[in-house]
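Issue 218. Parser rejects a valid record. Input:
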Amino acid sequence: MILNERTERHTHILQVARQMMTAARTAPKGKGIDIVEAAVVDGEELQILSRTTREMSAENGFKFFLRDADNILSAEAVVLIGTREQPQGLNCGHCGFAICTARPTGVPCALNTLDLGIAIGSACATAADLRVDTRVMYSVGQAAQRLGFLPGCHCVMAIPVSASSKNPFFDRKPKEEQKG
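Output the parser choked on:
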């Protein structure tokens, strides 16, 4: 049997993406409470994710959303990592409110945000160990959140994954808004 890397690349990236999800799941969590969710997007859903990111650029005026919308089309897959809203009850004040019960709806618990960051770092470290390219994109994460790709998550980040001869997620030029 001969396995050609070019024909096996997509299968390999999906295996890496699965390992990234496992790394996010097993990353340390505040108070040991698991509020992290993860998913992999590829195929038609990747096209939908790109379109939604582009639409959001038209709404918010951020041109880097356009760049990111195109950029994820260079990825084999996108790993999504998000957190469900769950105050940890420490009254730590890191969210800006002295006690958890004073925190208004929509203001995330700081520990939830820290858990998300640790999970993202663990997932990206796994990808780096496996020599695939990634970039964390909150723009695409917002589009995934809008699409409901991680139901119940109040904060979602996206990590496109690629195995090509050059990392498509760096040395990116600003995207100009398309006319017409």
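Fixed in the parser; the record now loads. The longest strand covers residues 153-162.
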